[in-house]
Design brief:
This protein is α/β, with parallel strands linked by helices and about 260 residues long. Helix content is about 35%, strand content about 15%. The chain has a nine-stranded mixed β-sheet with strand order 1-2-8-4-5-6-7-3-9, covered by helices on one side. It starts with a strand and ends with a helix.
Length: about 260
């Protein structure tokens, strides 16, 4: 719901029915507009994504019923009725990476890093191969080479493919009980975030705490299930950004293959 606030004629009071743990309440300025959502920036530099219910739950998402989007540069004041957190993984999960690879064979997009899930490549993954190789070596216990920096900010869009891939790595490392590696990756990544956008950096900070879009946590739950509905799971992944869901899922798969 929404209503005009006092002050500027384009200011709005927005009441989110549910929002992620990383969404502040209070006044913020609109800094990016999309068809179903907008990003806002708070005075302390934090960001949130305000969207309609179809955007889905996530650590930075505030979902508003019957949302009418504000204009660019407008000020909004956000309140939140309830908070969302992703569900915990089952204890001692048995990961079925083969089921994901089979289900994704005819579904991965041509763009981004989704192709990596099924062992395919495109021009972006070819360009990023030194960085992807560095990540693979690090996942099995080697030092993280400087080559991995190529992924930060790599690709078009507000959250580039390289960032989404790194976010998927962080979320999966937390979910699959490899938190020391997640913490090590974040220590390496945090001082390098100036290489990407502030909004993408905010998503990476949430991923460093183990949180991402609900579709990604749904995929993690499916990986731990012998009766997963992969059609429904991948439908949800495909709804996250342009190819952001697939890019992050590729990062999740890179960790899951070693589980």
């Amino acid at each position: 719901m929404h209503a005009p606030s006092s002050g500027s004629s384009n200011a709005l009071n927005l009441a989110a029915s549910v929002a992620g743990q990383f969404v502040p309440e209070g006044a913020a300025d609109v800094v990016a507009l999309f068809r179903r959502s907008c990003y806002v920036r708070y005075a302390d530099g934090r960001h949130a994504c305000i969207g309609d219910m179809s955007v889905g739950r996530g650590p930075l998402n505030a979902l508003v019923d019957s949302l009418q989007l504000p204009t660019m540069d407008a000020q909004v004041t956000l309140s939140v009725a309830a908070r969302w957190k992703p569900p915990p993984m089952p204890p001692n999960p048995q990961i079925d990476i083969g089921a994901l690879e089979y289900a994704a064979r005819q579904r991965v997009p041509r763009e981004g890093f989704g192709c990596l899930i099924v062992g395919a490549h495109n021009s972006l993954s070819g360009h990023a191969q030194p960085a992807l190789d560095a990540i693979e070596r690090w996942l099995i216990g080697n030092a993280l080479d400087d080559d991995a920096q190529m992924l930060i900010g790599l690709g078009p869009g507000l959250t580039p493919s390289g960032d989404d891939y790194l976010g998927g790595l962080l979320i999966a490392l937390h979910a699959l009980d490899r938190r020391p590696q997640a913490q090590g990756l974040w220590r390496w990544l945090k001082p390098r975030l100036k290489r990407t956008s502030a909004i993408s950096a905010a998503h990476l900070a949430a991923a460093a705490a183990g949180e991402g879009h609900e579709a990604l946590h749904g995929a993690l739950q499916a990986l731990a299930s012998r009766s997963a509905d992969w059609t429904r799971t991948l439908d949800a992944i495909a709804e996250v950004g342009h190819v952001s869901g697939w890019d992050a899922l590729a990062g999740i798969a890179a960790v899951a293959k070693l589980a």
